[in-house]
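Bug: token stream looks shifted between consecutive jobs. Job 1:
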Amino acid sequence: MTFIVGLKCSDGLVMCADTLESDGYTKKYRNKLVNRVIGSEWGVCWGGSGNAYVVDKFSDKLTQMIGNDSYGRAALEIHAEACLEFIRTQYSRPCDQIDIVLSLFGRPLQIEKGLAPVLGIPEFHLYKGSSESACFASQKEYCCAGMDVTLAEFVLANTYLRSIKMAEATRLGIFTTAMMKKYADGVGGETTVYTHLRGSDQWSTLSDFELSVIESDVSVESAEINMSKFWANSPNRINFSQMTEAEIEVNRLMQPRPRTKN
């Protein structure tokens, strides 16, 4: 199982993924996120869950279709959906279905009559797509891809803020991935992270040291401890010192019986 999470924040984009790949018999580790920067003008990053060979086929097709074209959000959406349609047509088995999380940044050209074209305001977008529908839908906050992302959705629903900045979104993406690596079957290995800061012309990544510092700072273990404290300190917590009727009855039955005289 693969886990991919993308977050759109107020000042950029964050993409995180695990690196474990398993077919049920063997394991290997690989970077599951593909990133491209075209002519220092715009960039795209994506990762997919599902059959690894089918995800690779999608990546190859999308890379070819992107080429060196100038930035155009609509054109990229058309290319990406065409690749999903190709996958749906050529790989129609249920086990070949894939889900894709994709991030995009760029500066559109603004052309005014009689004036030279100028670069517009930097923009960035987050999408999720599936070969089942061959459709990419724009995401306003975050999205995940994987066999079962219920836990990740729970974490993000209770931690993501609309005003979140890229630095904090990076920590949240890493934490969510670490949670999935511990509790979701088939998710593991190192975490891959790519970020884009609004106005820049590149994808950035974290060093092993930076990643380890964040993973230590927002560890799954600390979240587990705080969850236990929350439950133990709940103001409406049941008084466990009081025995229930079932416990009273069991306690009575376990008492030694008085001996009877002949």
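Job 2, same session, no restart:
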Amino acid sequence: MNRARIRDLGIKLGIYPTGPNNAITDVPGVLVGQATVIHDQPSVARTGVTVILPRDGAIGKDYAFAGFHRFNGCGEMTGIQWLEETGLLTSGIALTNTGQVGMVRDALAQASYATDRTGPFYLPVAAETYDGWLNDVTAPALTRQHVIEAVAAARSGPVDEGNVGGGTGMICHDFKGGIGTASRLVETRSGKFTLGVLVQTNYGDRALLRIDGVPVGREIGFDRVPSPFEEAPQSSSIIVILATDAPLLADQCRRLAQRITTGLARVGGVGHNSSGDLFLAFATGHHVPAQANGPIPLGVMLPPGHLNPFFEAVPEAVEESILNALAAAETMTGVHSHTAYAMPLDEVKRVMEQYRRLI
């Protein structure tokens, strides 16, 4: 169960309204499923998998335009060569740990074949961040069955955050991190659309953490909440998935993926050398059948000048998703007794009140 969401603390981010669940699942047809693996025997496991299934899972037969952006490339996201070649997302998306991203990629394909949701060609998208500070990566605990269970569990509605799914063993700004999500309703001259974001957070130094511009990380130093690391902070990675129901083309999706960087920067992400900061945006407003036998009528598209509200809403949703991951995550002890401490919500409220940011 989520510990809290950032708005529960009286912190409102940005100017755009949220969807009903303030989650990526507010985008119609986008489902999220998760499987979490926690045990201490025969090995210490603090890991899992999170899956995102567009088109109610039928993305393998009904493709969506998509774009990718690499802010820093010390990471892996499979299927991207094909996505960039065609401008199309042709599979579900899975987020997991570094050591098992290949297995998860194969299992995602297996699960899709089993449910008869794939088209004639399939290169699944699976991405990773490194959970080896809390999870024993020498004894892989995640199995194909866990991926299949996450696919079967995929639903619309509220999304569990924090120590769940692919985010189970992750650390963010030297606090416990994990899965987070948020959404925005975007009003344009072409109509009203929903934009949703889901993140797997595993990056950043404490001193860089900001909430609504407030230097919370400097105010809550290691004298108040210890670092999870024995030596210098271990900067790592973040995966961000963005969805919208707007009728965008591939290059417009790529432009949204680029703007994810501005949301990461608001919280204090700078793209350290060892960070895998990989961003994918897809849009379900157009339908591209996998087995089209003739021209595909795409209908309307948003003029480039109508994208400015999206460019404003993307950083809001990314910022709130990251902070929701931090607010929801609970203190966790893992392999070798390493402990990642939860961001102290009472301290956050104290600091935000000091800076007059609470509503």
